[in-house]
Amino acid sequence: MKTVLLTLLVMCAFAANSVLNRAAVGAGHIGSMDFAALRLVSGAAVLGVLASVSGGRRWLGAFRAVNVGALALYMLAFSLAYRALPAGAGALILFGTVQITMFGGAVSGGEAVPWQRWIGAALALLGLGWMFLPGTGGLPLPATIAMAAAGIGWGVYSLRGRAGGPPIDTTAASFLGAVPLALVAWALAPDAALNGTGVMLAILSGAATSGLGYALWYSVLPALGATRAALWQLTVPVIAVVGGVALLGEAVTARLVLSCALVVGGVAFGLAAPRRQT
């Protein structure tokens, strides 16, 4: 039960990142690369302090090039995509891609996937597709490609988190390692738009819903496995839609409610499958 509650908390943090990024970048309060850089810097600062308090300088030895690259790809492409994508649609593309990436990684890594989990994943993806069916063809292609790239980055980053190790150390090192890449991207593509609201939302996203949220995610990943973790993340677009309705004024329709129910039902069915080993 503790793992379930912590995972639900993490999913809410992930959805909050979509809402915060869309509210800041989409509304013109801050540029996409400014948001990504501030998000990484603030997250690295908070995580570095926490990791130093808990383990001294131990976390400085937790750098992994793949982790850093995957996190940077996710952060930069994520912010870039939210220039044009709605919060819910962006989360759909992101975690649909994450689903494919993590299921592929699980199968190639020898993890046995029960048939119930495949059916649950298919039902959840069907619900997500139904949620945005009329608007999918009208989504801007560059933003869609950017969000798909972000999904690959996040999927790889999540797969790497199954290796264990102190979650706060690994996350702090990854954030710090990704900061120079974000600063280079910001220098090459500076955005003119920047105000106090955008800065505040970027810092909130970096320090709280990203930094602390990702550290918590790495702490629960070893108990979930790749396919269960991928299924859990399919709830994020549903939560992001609710956040978009409550905070960004998006409309509620009957199909939106039914598709969210299909996603939740599919995830519940898949998560009920017993864990097996090869």
TrEMBL record:
UniProtKB keywords: Membrane, Signal, Transmembrane, Transmembrane helix
Protein name: EamA-like transporter family protein
Gene Ontology terms: cellular component: membrane
Domain EamA: 145-269
Chief site of localization: membrane
Top-rank lineage group of the source organism: Bacteria
Keyword Membrane annotated: yes
Subcellular location: Membrane
PANTHER family (alphabetical): AMINO-ACID METABOLITE EFFLUX PUMP-RELATED, INNER MEMBRANE TRANSPORTER
Positions of transmembrane segments: 36-53, 65-82, 88-108, 115-133, 139-159, 171-189, 195-217, 229-248, 254-273
Membrane topology: Multi-pass membrane protein
Pfam families on file: EamA
Signal sequence annotation: 1-15
